[in-house]
Amino acid sequence: MDGRRQSASGGQEHLPVIIVSYNTRELLRRCLSALLASEGVAPQPIVVDNASSDGSAAMVRDEFPCVRVIALDSNRGFAAANNVALRELGFRGQPSPRPTPLQGEGRGEGGLPEYILLLNPDTEVQPDAVVTLLRFIRAHPRAGVVGAQLTFADGRFQHSAFRFPGLAQTIFDFFPLHGRLINSRLNGRYPQRNTPFEIDHPLGACMLARRDVIEQVGLMDEAYFMYVEEVDWCRRIKRASWQIWCEPRARIVHHEGQATRQFRHAMFVAKWRSRVRYFHKFHSPQYVALVRAIIRLGLWSEARKLSRESLAPDERTRLLDAFTKVRALL
After folding, report:
1. Chain CA centroid to CA 243, Å
2. How high is the pLDDT of residue 264?
């Protein structure tokens, strides 16, 4: 793999791309290979490695010399790692007191890039995906963030556009009911479409953000270690009167959840820690009380299921420990 050869821009627009990695070396290799083969744009990847133990950072340095690597000495989580790269690009940590006027293409005041792409290491962009996102956001000046259409490796549709989470989604997390309801508007899913449509938030696997938005609303909330950080960010972006879109003509293969599967029980706790924080941050005490009641009921139901399942003793212990930790958050 000749990273220098692939990085040649040929006069194309340069686009910073932030990729946060954690023990996903082989997927990261495929991600970078696909990204650097993008058509119509010259990606400038920045890999922020959260202290991987699988040699991810060394692999990038050896095989992709055009890629900048920021190797952290500890796992700081998704939001904090993205913020490291955003600060390196010149963005301030605090939001501006007023909206920044729209600038021309390229770099704006202070040398800040006009657009930033946040991309997960378990993705493979199709050749025209990134330039399709760029064309859309340029044509829609009130679009603050645009996400792509994600697919599974076999080409099947994968939900990548969502409504902000609420009571119904919390219920479905523990009580899935019918499959059609899981994939319905009631559970915050948008139907599959072929043309761009406005949404509440995309999955954080791929988000193209406008510089003016980042300057206005600030960086990601680092109190979220994993999960919901993109939801929180998009909620603040929409509160600032920006639009958020999905561009389904930009297609990206997403090998879902490869990093988080390494620590399934810890990620279960992290997910609910983040969701509880989100509800406290954006909803009333009465609403939060309802959420807490649903979570308690769901944990009770899950614990009852465990008593009827045939599980190894250590697996049962880990699951019950995770349930106890989530209850402590309430």
Report:
1. 17
2. 79
Q: List the Cα angle 14/19/23 in 5-degree steps.
A: 150
Nearest partner of 245 among 115, 149, 168, 156, judged by Cα: 149
Q: How far is CA 69 from CA 21, 65, 109, 172, 260, in A?
A: 10, 9, 25, 39, 21
98: which 2 tokens? Answer: 């007023």
Q: Could you report how far apart the first and last alpha carbons of the chain are, in Å?
A: 49
pLDDT at position 13 is: 83
Amino acid at 257: G
pLDDT score of 2: 42
pLDDT of residue 262: 53
The reported pLDDT for the residue numbered 11 is 61
Q: Please report the sign of the dihedral spanned by the C-alpha atoms of residue 246, residue 249, residue 250, residue 253.
A: positive
Q: Which residues of the chain have pLDDT under 50?
A: 1-8, 98-106
Residues in the chain: 330
Distances (CA, A) of 162 to 245, 288, 323: 10, 21, 26
Q: Check if the beta carbon of residue 206 is closer than 8 Å to that of residue 119.
A: yes
Question: Beta strands 157-158 and 123-125: pairing type?
Answer: unpaired
Minimal CA–CA distance to 278: which of 233, 237, 236, 232?
A: 232
Give the Cα separation of 220 and 217 in Å (integer): 9
Helices 56-63, 25-36: axis angle to 10 degrees equals 30
Given a contact cutoff of 8 angstroms between Cβ atoms, the answer to whether 183 and 189 are in contact is yes
Q: What is the DSSP letter of 158?
A: E
Contact in structure between 147 and 207 (CB atoms under 8 Å): yes
Q: Is residue 66 within 8 Å of residue 6, measured between CB atoms?
A: yes
240 and 259 Cβ atoms separated by less than 8 Å: no
pLDDT of residue 97: 52
Backbone angles phi, psi at 132, to 5 degrees: -65, -40
Residue-level pLDDT at 126: 98
pTM of the entire predicted model = 0.90
